[in-house]
Amino acid sequence: MRNYIVIIVFSIIFVIVLSFITQKKHLGKSPINRCLFFLGKFSMFVSWIFFFIKALFPNYFQLVSPIFFEWIAVSLLLFAIVIELLAFFTLGKLSKFGLPEHKSVLITKGVYRISRNPMYVAFDLICIASSIFHPNIINIGFSIIGIVIHHKIILGEENFLKTNYCDEWYKYEKRTRRYL
Asked: Which pLDDT belongs to residue 95?
C-alpha cells in the first residue's frame, strides 16, 4: 500500500514539474551561481528518483528500512505534497524556477503566512522522507547537497526581495519564519 501511495504521488509531482518547466515563462534568473543552482535541483531530483524507484521495486534493494520508518517517510511525503500544492496554487502565475525578471507582488497570504518558503520546506521534507524510505548513503548525500544548496538559493532570493520590496519585505520577514 505504501509503495502505491509513493508511486501515485511522484507520478503527480513529475507531471506537474514537467508541465511547469516546459513553459519558458516559468524560468527566471538564478539567485546564486547557475551551476550551483542546477546542481541543487539535480541533487533533489536524484533523491526523489531514489524514493520512486524503491517504491517501484521494493525487493530489489539489499538495504531494507523497517516498515514503520517507511510509513513515516510516506506520511512526510503526503504532508510535503499538501504544502507544495498550497504554495504552488497560492503563487499561481507568479511561480518561477528562479527570480522574476519583472517586478511582481510579494505574496504573503495563504501558506506564505506560516512560512516564507513553503515550497522549499516541501522539497526538503521530500528529501528527508526519501532518505528515511531508502537509507542509502548516496541518496542521503544527494538529499543533503540538495537541501544545503536550496538554503543558499533561499538566501539569494531573500537578498533580491530585500532590494525590491524594502519595507514590505522587512515587515513580512519579522512576522513570518523562513521555514516553519
From this structure: 73
DSSP annotation of 60 reads: T
The pLDDT assigned to 162 comes to: 94
Instruction: Render pLDDT for 111-149 as a digit per residue (tens, 0 to 9).
Output: 999 999 999 999 999 999 999 999 999 999 999 999 999
Phi, then psi, of 100 in degrees rounded to 5: -70, 145
Whether residue 65 contacts residue 132, with contact meaning beta carbons closer than 8 Å, is answered with yes
Q: What digits encode the pLDDT tens for the residues 26-51?
A: 567 889 999 999 999 999 999 999 99
Cα(11)–Cα(30) distance, integer angstroms: 27
Rounded Cα gap, residues 12 and 25, in angstroms: 21
Distance CA 122, CA 58 (A): 24
pTM over 0.70: yes
Selection from 102, 111, 103, 57 nearest residue 82 by Cα? 111
How far lies 54's CA from each of 3, 46, 76, in Å? 8, 12, 16
Judge contact between 148 and 44, C-beta under 8 A.
no
Q: What is the DSSP code (8-state) at residue 22? A: T
CA 12 to chain centre: 14
pLDDT at 101: 75
Distance (Å, whole) CA 32 – CA 149: 9
